[in-house]
Amino acid sequence: MPDDSQPVAANQDDALVLRQDTGAIARVTLNRPKAYNSLSLEMMRVLTATLQEIGQDQAIRCVVIEGAGKGFCAGHDLKELRSRTDRAFYEEVFETCCQLMSTITRLPQPVIAKVHGIATAAGCQLVATCDLALADDAARLSTPGVNIGLFCSTPMVALSRNVPRKRAMEMLLTGEMVSAPVAAEWGLINQAVDHAGLEAAVMSYAEAVASKSPHVLKIGKRAFYQQLDQSLDEAYRHTAQVMTENMLARDAAEGIDAFLEKREPQWTGE
């Protein structure tokens, strides 16, 4: 486990994405520190494949995404984008980015962003897409595309689903950095914590999540995102069915019995 006073160190390997499992928690590290972990096309492909692999791993109950080096993620690789001028390449880049974000949302395990340094553009989108996010109180987040003639349209999707409309538009139209404490106040992240305590805070969340039934985490996360786009009546109908199915699960019976019997539950994942 990395030292709790430092961001994850860059691995000497050339791997774009690193995975280290700690019990039921998968630690996934973006590993392009010299480029502030900017999301090249290949990096997005590797990260998506890594997450899909984790999604099939029944031993993992929670995922933490972090960045090597001085920052979390600076967004798309602008040098790579300017190396090409063809529509097909740009479509592939942004479709791959959308697939990555959808993979996180659809992953059965909850995903936590551990943010330090900067999280800008698609990096901010990544933070907003994760189910939970904690940041070093010196971290800064932004959607600065407007400053370089490239409006942050895909980051806008995740951003606008996390913060109030006026705040989202403020970030999108000005491109200015938002401090971690302000991001927490707006709801973009869960907490801004002292740098020395970031690792402990993230692991506290991760361990709390990982202690729950993986079956319940899966159906609960899926239902949360499904009901967001439904009307009030549709959402209640849908979640009533989800709870009915949940009550029929083995882990629901075990959890309720354990609570009534004042003992720790033994989850089966069913």
TrEMBL record:
Record Pfam families: ECH_1
Keywords: Fatty acid metabolism, Lipid metabolism, Transit peptide
Coiled coil: none
Listed transmembrane segments: none
Gene3D superfamilies recorded: 2-enoyl-CoA Hydratase, Chain A, domain 1, Lyase 2-enoyl-coa Hydratase, Chain A, domain 2
Its job: May play a role in fatty acid biosynthesis and insulin sensitivity.
PANTHER family per UniProt: ENOYL-COA HYDRATASE DOMAIN-CONTAINING PROTEIN 3, MITOCHONDRIAL, PTHR43602
Family affiliation: Belongs to the enoyl-CoA hydratase/isomerase family.
Official protein name in the record: Enoyl-CoA hydratase domain-containing protein 3, mitochondrial
